[in-house]
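Render this sequence as a predicted structure.
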Amino acid sequence: MAEHLDVTEEFLKDALDAYLLKYGKCTVVDNYMVFFEPLGVVDMNYGIE
């Protein structure tokens, strides 16, 4: 993932750790639930018509 974002692995880990401290294990952004531990994203509208 770090390579895809063109950042170092250390920078990515530090950024994810900072978000984990700020938001806890997850937060909602628009219609997505973003999990920081373990890392993942869930579309909360998936399957809703």
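Summary. The CA atoms of residues 17 and 36 lie 8 Å apart. Strands lie at 26-29, 32-36, 39-43.
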